[in-house]
Design a protein that fits this description.
heterodimer, A: 82 residues, mainly alpha, Cytochrome Bc1 Complex, Chain D, domain 2, B: 423 residues, alpha/beta, four-stranded parallel beta sheet, 25 strands, 26% strand
């Protein structure tokens, strides 16, 4: 439940359960590879991946928190059930 | 369980799997009534259904037929967006998530009996109540604004709805060469950067359509309260002859007939369009219920659950609360409150422990023209020792400068947060 609640904070910009609006500039996270999401968080925090805002947000999460949130999004279906 | 709620349960399967509150049993967990369909309340209603696995009976009480967003509403004043662009219907909350919508104004809480009374006299029982009533205006601190005529002439336009469209009409009717005056109350107030964004938007409109006109800001604060260097840069680059900024001017009296505002040391200024933001406090229903324990203005809450410190079983969200350090009164933050509260209420109703360490972020975009954007961001984590939310050191920050690059992200933010709370 804690991980679901933490991940819900990301949903504000990235869509409920990581399903972003298809025409929105903010990318979806649902169903993305957990290792890839966690690596993006590391690279945003280190500055290896440039960003407008995620470099600031990513610095607020430690490796374990980012890994748990990444795994949660990886487990979500990119499409909502009908 | 009918076919629709069965499908809905499948749709929420991802959240369901992660929520111990909804493990095996399908027994109802309880009845939650949410007051206020803004960024905090609508989010709480939807996420109570998601985190509760459909087992929490959720009613949302909201008098308006549709949601109208405060974020982006300054673009309506500037003319680059219309009211329809910031309006979202509530029906998906009922259709897709099984929230019961009651279109009414909630008027009184009986925390002892655990009931909520509506304006029509109807009484709703609850196991837990979530109040997200936004801000109300402290008219007793603004002399001359006690008549309906004054309030129809001198607008605040600070809760979207019809005043935003009405203020736009005043700006359109104003002749070129006129003066728009905006007064800002001492912090805390809803949306710290909002007034300065508004000045940009009105100046953007004047620059294109009424270039001899002026925007004059009178701010009760010592200086710009949010994104100061970025707004100053935008004003210098785009609106140097249009915007005048006067800090430390606390408006105390209005003569609506002459559109004159008086400040606490006796100075007066006259406007063609006068836009007064009065001092603000928690929504009336929360104040009347005795929940505004901080100076009679804001509601103190337990940041693990958003339960009021004054009334067990009553949770308060969004702009009404006594904020934690460095926590803005923003729509994004209210959305985060709504989810934290929903997760905690789902756990409490299931007899399970609440998350001992909430962790969330704030993102706030402001438009300095129709296409240039600045942001402020922060990450907030619960501190068990201090029993409050603290901003995470080293995280968050400001845009380096106003840019067109951030505009798609700002519009994307709006699309996704509206879908997150109402879709």
């Amino acid at each position: 439940m804690q991980t679901a609640a933490w991940a819900a904070a990301c949903a504000t910009c990235h869509g409920t359960a990581g399903r972003a609006a298809p025409d929105a500039a903010v990318p979806p996270l649902a169903g993305r590879d957990a290792g890839w999401i966690a690596a993006q968080m590391r690279d945003f925090a280190s500055g290896a991946r440039p960003a407008t805002i995620m470099h600031q947000i990513a610095k607020g999460y430690d490796e374990e928190q980012a890994a748990r949130i990444a795994a949660w999004f990886a487990a979500q279906s990119p499409q909502e059930a009908p | 369980m009918n076919r629709r709620s069965l499908l809905k349960g499948l749709g929420a399967a991802g959240l369901l799997a992660a929520a111990p509150a909804v493990r095996a049993s399908q027994a109802p967990l309880g009845k939650v009534v949410v007051v206020g369909g803004g960024y905090g309340g609508a989010t709480a209603a939807k996420y109570l259904r998601l985190f509760g696995g459909g087992r929490i009976d959720v009613t949302l009480v909201e008098p308006n037929a549709e949601f109208v967003s405060c974020p982006l509403s300054n673009l309506v004043l500037g003319g680059s967006k219309a009211m329809a662009d910031i309006t979202v219907p509530y029906d998906a909350l009922a259709r897709r998530h099984g929230v019961r919508l009651v279109r009414a104004r909630a008027v009184a809480v009986d925390a002892g009996r655990r009931t909520l009374r509506l304006a029509g006299g109807q009484v709703l029982p609850y196991d837990r109540l979530v109040l997200s009533p936004g801000v109300d205006f402290m008219w007793d601190r603004m002399a001359g604004m006690d008549t309906p005529e004054a309030r129809a002439t001198v607008l605040h336009a600070w809760n979207a709805e019809h005043q935003t469209a009405a203020l736009r009409r005043q700006l359109e009717a104003m002749p070129d060469g006129g003066t728009f005056i905006l007064t800002i109350p001492a912090a805390p107030y809803r949306c710290p950067p909002g007034p300065y964004e508004r000045a940009c938007q009105v100046a953007w409109y004047f620059k294109r359509h009424k270039p001899r006109s002026k925007v004059r800001i009178f701010d009760a604060n010592q200086d710009i309260t949010s994104k100061g260097p970025l707004f100053r840069q935008a004003w210098a680059e785009h609106y140097a002859d249009l915007i005048e900024y006067n800090p430390q001017f606390n408006a105390v009296r209005v003569d609506a007939a002459t559109r004159t505002v008086e400040f606490e040391f006796g100075e007066t200024e006259r406007a063609d369009v006068l836009n007064v933001l009065p001092p603000m406090r928690a929504g009336a229903i929360a104040v009347d219920a005795g929940l505004a324990t901080a100076n009679g203005r804001w509601c103190e809450v337990d940041f693990l659950t958003f339960e009021s410190v004054a009334a067990p079983g009553v949770h308060v969200l969004g702009d009404s609360i006594q904020i934690a350090p460095a926590m803005p009164k923003s729509g994004h933050m209210a959305n985060q409150h709504g989810k934290t509260c929903a997760a905690a209420v789902a756990a409490l109703l299931a007899g399970e422990p609440v998350d001992p360490e909430p962790l969330y972020a704030n993102t706030c975009y402001s438009f300095t023209s129709d296409r240039e954007v600045v942001h402020v961001s922060s990450v907030h984590r619960y501190d068990p020792g201090k029993k409050t939310m603290l901003s995470v050191h080293g995280a968050g920050g400001l845009s380096p400068a106003p840019s067109e690059q951030e505009a798609p992200y700002a519009f994307g933010w709006a699309r996704n947060i509206w879908a997150d709370m109402l879709g």
